[in-house]
């Protein structure tokens, strides 16, 4: 885990002067001839994320960080993180005309940019820059959010050779132990004995036994249950993916990783709720006992499902998990999954699309997403598409024919098992395709910080 800390507020620190592009000329008018000449000679225009080190008698006197224009700031998150990440070692503090939201974004973006996944290569021993906590920022909340995000990133980035169902279980149990949570794990053929037939059907072809895991924390307050898809690798099963389609399939447990990261945030901040986390963990493999196209599966809820594509397995394991969660009727039920390519076609990799029928929950999430710098986008549970998931020979079809509305039909499928008025489903990507400020290429959490901010309103804690 990347060490997270701010510079000691009492320690000497050099200044990072944040200057917007339209304020640069005004700021320069109050500086010495030498500073003006240095800035002009460097061609510094205060574009978003630009950094210029300004020399003094004893080395670097201070740094200039470009804040761009309102238009360029609106085109991306964590623009200052690019500049802050390029600072030389030492203690630094922000200065400039920043709102509280902008200070929060700078602090969060800087912390997120410090992430390194160094499990398979030696980490740099060079000391990095340390930023003093900007005025008004909530250090405990920032650290909780970033530590939860880093847990998610570490899990998603770990290849399936080192993160199968057993290893995901070990990480799940370690998280529970850290916060004193109670756990339950059901594995292998015990899944059939305890009525999780779809989890078993998806995972039985792998020598790495399928399982379902539950964590419980908190003994008072409203109840929240999080369910995350834990497909540790997805070959597609007998409807096997092409090789290019498997390259990112180590991330197919991104829903599980994200709910675990969110759970860590909740428990770290000691929110006054009763939390339950459920993760079905499988590997969708190919062997003689793999589920076949047109098999009909029973489910925990009693609904039958025709398997029209073995590569639509995530909704199967989530179906049993959501049915189990709904039996306790939590006040809010949320699922997260790397479920469909259709969601990526619809909104791309940067937005987390979600579904809910509850206007209060949707409003709370939308209101919280901006301050959390965690964008989300609502898609509809479009009921006229319900017949698309009804094959006739069974109650449900796991993969309707045709290429239309794939994310919506998957969400409608899951809603049949959740059967809960305050249900929310996220169809996330959990991967950053290119380096971006605060988000290096690789695994990434989506929706967790927005949910953390929305939970008080969703659960009536305000």
Folded structure, characterized:
The protein is of the alpha/beta class. The protein has two domains: 14-114, Leucine Aminopeptidase, subunit E, domain 1, CATH 3.40.220.10; 142-458, Aminopeptidase. The chain is 35% helix and 20% strand. The longest helix has 19 residues, at 139-157. The two termini are 33 Å apart.
What tags apply to this protein structure?
about 450 residues, alpha/beta, Leucine Aminopeptidase, subunit E, domain 1, Aminopeptidase, 2 domains, nine-stranded mixed beta sheet, five-stranded mixed beta sheet, 16 helices, 19 strands, elongated, Leucine_aapep/pepB, aminopeptidase, Peptidase_M17_N_1, metalloaminopeptidase activity
Supply the number of helical segments.
Answer: 16
* CATH fold assignment of the largest domain: Aminopeptidase
Report the CATH superfamily of the largest domain: Zn peptidases
Report the sheet with the most strands, covering strand number, pairing sense and barrel closure.
9 strands, mixed
| Number of E strands | 19
Strand content: 15-25%
**Average pLDDT level:** 96
- The number of domains is 2
SSE-based structural type: alpha/beta
Q: Give the uncertain stretches in residue-range form.
A: none
